[in-house]
Structure formats: C-alpha cells, structure tokens
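Fold this complex.
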Amino acid sequence: MNDDRPEDEARPDEAPGDGVGGLERPTGEHRPRWRETLGIVLANKLAAFGLVVLVVLILTAIFADLVAPYAINAQDLTRRFEPPSLQHLFGTDEFGRDLFSRVVFGSRVSLQVGAVAVSISLALGTFIGLISGYRRGWLDTVLMRTMDVLFSFPVVLLAIALVAVLGPSLRNTMLAVGIVFTPIFARVVRGSALSVSQDLHVRAARSLGASDLRIVFRHVLPNVAAPVIVQTSLSLAFAILIEAALSFVGVGVQPPEPAWGLMLSDAQRYRTQGWWLSVFPGLAIFLTVMAFNLVGDGLRDALDPQQRSVIESRGAGGDA
Amino acid sequence: MRLRSLTAVTAVIALMVAACDDGNGGVDLGDAGEDDPAIEDGTDDVDDEAEPAAEGGTLRAAIGGDPDQLDAHTTTSSFAFTVLENVYDTLVQPGEDLTMEPALAESWETSEDLLTWTFTLREGVTFHDGSELDAGDVVASFERIAEEGDNAFRLEAVEEFNAPDELTVELVLNRPAPNLLEQIGPFKGMAIAPAEAIEAGTMQDDPIGTGPFEFVSFSPGDSVTLERFDDYWGGDVALDGIEFQVVPDEGTKLTSLQTGEVDWIDSVPPEQVEELGADDQIELDQVAGNDYWYIALNQDREPFDDPAVRRAIAFALDIDVITEAARFDAATPNETAIPETSFWYHDYEPYGHDPDQARQLLEDAGVTDLTVDLMVTNEFPETVTFAQVMEAQLGEVGIDVQIRTEDFTTWLADQGDGEFDAFGLSWLGNIDPDDYYYAQHHSEGSFNFHGFADPETDELLDSARVETDEDDRKELYDQAAERIVDLASYIYLYNPDIVQAWSPDVQGYTTRPDQATRFVDTSLAS
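Structure:
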C-alpha cells in the first residue's frame, strides 16, 4: 500500500492534455466546465439513471414527513409481521411499525451519515493533502505516514474500533466513518497537489510573491477539485454502506432510529417471519449505493479518467 | 469475577429463548415448596433411573456456544454446565419439582441448633477413573469451591468441612442456613470431584466425576464428546455417548435439527416457536422457567435516587406489551421476581400500566425533561427489543429514552463502573428466594450494581436468610419482595419460558425449569 508513491509522482506527466489540467488551469473558469461535465455525465445513461435515483432519494429524505404514511415509531403489536398490503406497502415489522415509513425515514439517516461523514473526511483529507502535497518535506512524510497507518486497516474494522472507543451513536458513527475516509482524500488531494504545485501558473504566482496560503487556496485547491469531486461521490456510497454495516452489527445508529442497517439486522433475526423485512431495507441500501456509484463513475469518466485505479483498489478494500 | 458467573449464567437465559403458539405449552411444575426441603431428613428414594440400555447410540446435541473450559468449580460458562451436568454429581440435586433430593448424599440431618449438617454418602459410588467416592473428596471439593471460583458465596455460611468417617460429611455453620441444600444442590458448580484430581490440578483438562457420562474429548469451538460410564451409581444408562456440537448461530442450529444433523438443541428463540411447533418432525418442549428479566435504574444518579421517579417509570411501563414484544408468548409477565410456579411466589402487582400516575409522580417530584440512558446488549437481543418498547412507552409520559447497545464485554464493564442510567438483563438458575433477592438488593449485595440501599430491605433479607420456619421465612420474603417492588429497586418484567427441541427419536428427555440438561434417562429410538 505504501509503494504507490511513484504513481503519485508520475501524475504530472498525465495531467496535461486531458483537458483538465496543464496550462489550461487558470482560476475562475470552472463554470463552463461544470456545464460541460454535467453534459458528459448525463450522456452516460447509467450515470443519468443514478442521478435520477439520487434526486428521488434526496427529495424523499427532505419530504419524508409527507411521504411516510405512519409515524415511524408507532408500535402496534397486534399488527406485527403483516405482509405488504395497500395499508402497509412494505408490510410491518416486529413491533407492528410500518416498514415503508421507516424505510422512507431511513433515507434521512443514510444521507445524513453519508453527507456529514464525507464532509468530515473531505475537509480533513483535503487540508492534510494540500499541506503534504504543497509543502512536502518532513511534514509530508509525517502526515502521509500517519495516513498510511490509518489506511492499512480494513475500513469497516477501523470504523468499528473507533465507534467502540467513542461509544455507539449516530453522531459517533458519522465521526468514525469520516475519520476512516480521511486518508483516501488526503492521498487523492496530495497527489494532485504535488503535480499542480509544479505547474507553470503556480510557479508564476510564487515568483510574483504570493503567499503560500494564497497559492494553496487560489491556485492549487481549484485544480485538485476534479478528483476530489469524483472521490466524494464514491465515498458517499461507501459511507452509507459502512453505516449500514455498523448499524447491522449494533455499534452504529441506535434503535429505534430507522436506519436501514438496523432494519436488516432485525430482519436477520426474524427471517422466517417475513421476507419483506429484509428485502425493502436491502433494496434501499442497494439502490442508494448503486446510485452514488453510478454518478461517481460518470463524474470520473467526465473529469478524471486517471483516478480509476486508486478508487477501485480502495473500493475493493472497503468491501473486505 | 462473580459478575461473569452471573452473566454467563444469564447467558443461558437469553439463548434459551422460548415461545409458545398456544400459550398453554408449559409443563406444570407442581408445588415446588410443598415439603420442607431444608430441614427434614433426606431419604434414599432415587428412582430406578434409566431403562435398560437397549439401542444405545450417540446423541448429537447442539449447544449455542463454546464452553470456555471444563473445570466445574471455576467455569462461568453456561455451555460448560450444559455438558458438565452429565459428568458430575452434587450431594443433593433438584428433582422435578426443584426440591432437593438425594444424589451423592443418601441422607442428611441437622443438629438441634441447626448449625451442624451431617450428610451420609451413598455407598459404592465410583469416579470415572475407578476410584471410590469418600468423604475426603467432598471436603476437598467444598474447600476448593470456598477458596476459588465464583461459587464461594454459596458456602459462605459454612465454617468447617469435616469428614468424621469415610462416608460421613459434616458441615459446621456460623449461622443457621435453611437454604443450605439449595446452595449446594442446584448446579454443577458445586460438583464433587476426586480429591486427587483437585490436588493435581487436572480438573480443567480432564473432568472426572461420578455422573452418567465420562469425558472423552474437548475441541474448543467445535465439540465436546462424552461416553457412557458403565459403573454409574444411578443404574444403567441407555446412550452410548453424547457429542455436544458448538453451533453459535440460532438459525443454523435450528436448521441442523430440522435436517437431522443433530438430535437435540439447547434453545429455541421465542420467535421461532410457532413455526417449529407446527413441524411434526420436531419435538418442542416449553416449560415455565425460574428466571426473570428486569431493568435496574442507577440509584447513585439523580433523579433515579428518588423512589418516586423509579415508581413513575414502573407505572409508565406496560409489562404485558413488553413481554409480548420481547418473548411472543413464551413468558409470563410478573411484577415480582419469583414465578408463579414457585412455592415462594408472592402475588403482588401494585403497578399495572398507569401513565397518568407516572406523570403525576414525575410532576410531584419536580422532574421534567428526563432523559434515560438505557444500556442493552446484542448478546441478548431481547434486551434490544424490550428497550424499544420502553422507549415508546416512556415517551408517552415525557421521558426520553436513549438506547445504548453495547457488546457484552463493554456492557459488563459499564455495569461494574456504574456507567448507566438504566440497564436491562436477566437472572437465572434461581431456586431459593435468597438467590432472587440478597445479592441484588441487599445494600452490600455483590450484584447490587444499581446502588439500592434500604435498611428495611437489608433487615428483612438478613433475617429471612436465617429463619428456619418455612412459613415465617416466606412471610419475610414476601415483605422483602413488596419493599423491593414498591421502591422499584428493580423493575421486574417477566419470567421467560424455557424452550428446547429435539428429534422424535430422542426419548426420555424433559426440559427442566432450572435448565439442567440431564441425559441420564435419554435414549435414541433408531
């Protein structure tokens, strides 16, 4: 895992010519590129599909109160384990709660965990990556070796360990997932920052006497955006998956919060009582993760084809 | 360390979950306290145990976890006891109605002042290694139990262990202990082992007992094998042997019974009882158990130190609904600890479900915006289930319950450190009322993790402990029970049924309310 540094160093050679980096990177010209990117993403049918699913999902989460027909914690033991019907679209669970309502509200938990956790790793990782890539030297070594240590743990295992220390709760789940993903962002950003900081316009800015801070934020940061955006969308998928895994084993979101992973864990216990208990939360997780992945893939194709290898190797690690 | 024994013991409970589709499947336990087990002289009335050995065969029994070790005196694993139940004997043992019957002791008597108990051992009992049982073995075993392991408290009243002759054991007490038989009889933690083995320190690797089966091999995480002991004092044993297979996953365990890979399983989760009951290829046995589930509120923390607040919570909870949610039909709601089936049962239900009363109490106590950190563990999924019902029920009276699910190790540590507002768990293996109340509710009780301290309760428990007249003793325990319930030291929930299942080929096995898994009379049909 540690010996991929040459890859990072090699990136300067790749960057020019892909329409993203190189000399065409002056600041302030992202707006047209955004539109262009969206066009490319939408032209990709799968990515477009993913985007539609995401939009639906986000709307569901926002308007969960309107979409869900029942209160999520309304228990009625006389109605436990009812199969799907017009009254209860997804059936009822072991407390007689309406599963559809719970799955709907579960989107909030998942998206919240995804958004907050990835924001944490994005912020932390970008910060660390920028410093490392731009300053280099011993600071780079210390920071990146620290990241390597974090990186060397299987993602889920590390998240479980963190939650075990922090205590199980929604907040700590978000924090743990955020920390777990930080090294990915740090690496991606550092790689790009390394290459960008050698670019002509950065060197020009430096020779004009711009401060480090100004250079990093005005010139380097905007130019590492592309890989970071790709990584963000893919990380969202994995964050949601890890939250589900943590909740499934009981160290994540606490009952009676309607987390999909928790629902699956209940379904496992009551597997002979009803197939709907596992199918609907499972589908919800599947669709969400798939949507983020498809969009992420689309973005990657549009923005930064070179990122593929890093992401895929990390993705495989995350599944383990 | 006692903590672990308790919880390991409670582990049995959670695993031995039970349910009944007709709500009527319990076996009548009889009147457990009808005669006076403590004082009267025991007589030798051991039944003609086993049918003549006919078919033989090896019973394949699935157990839900790995015995941590096989030293009966020090193990804390309920799974170890499932195995050791068949390897060891105790001086007396609980019969079907859970009164103590002669086992290795043929008879016993007590002195006038009740401070000396004299046990006469059965003649001609041999250990699996061929040596003869004598009083020295009993003394060596008791001395070890009193010194190490988690069962020392059971011999707390005993000052001296004497062996006046080969077949006589004399226990000299420092206070009357009407429940002495219930302390030394009900489980194999009080096993009688050969003095040589104790001295040599080999009990862990090579358990040698006097029971119907002798130990052959143990492969941790996989299986324990026993074979018939031909010189068993109780008569012929039908089975050639028993192979206990460790199958941690409940679903896998059920499936392996259904597909005939095993003949017997140690527990059936309550939610599976209905399905299994409908299966002709499976025999299901469900009995009312002696265990109980409860929640405890941390009385070292405000506002739970106020009995009115604890009572408010008790009023707000609907234990019928909690029981139904957590156990389906396989349990009996109970506002006290001791089940109806016991002689010591006291019919006392001051709470019911009364949210208005709860709100009133909270208001009078000046408590608003109460948040309860409720600690539960996945090790016993029903705690997570009933916590969610509590969350809803307490929510109705304005109490916010924050459920905290922890792995059992962390849970235990937090329990020990008092890091909780409330927790829910169970107690099992209780027979005598002292087992139900003393350690939990005496201010100096060893399992009083929730900080309950009430001088009146202490006094009642202390005097009940040494009261020798059974009716007076029950009266004292009834008062103690009321006091404990009124002050909501624990809030009791239900007594679970015990459910086990086996193939129709298995004969002569009964699920017992004390969960003792005795295969001495068992045979295999095919």
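The interface with chain A takes residues 251, 269, 271-272, 275, 321, 324-325, 378, 381, 384-385, 387-389, 391-392, 395, 402-407, 410 of chain B (CB under 8 Å).
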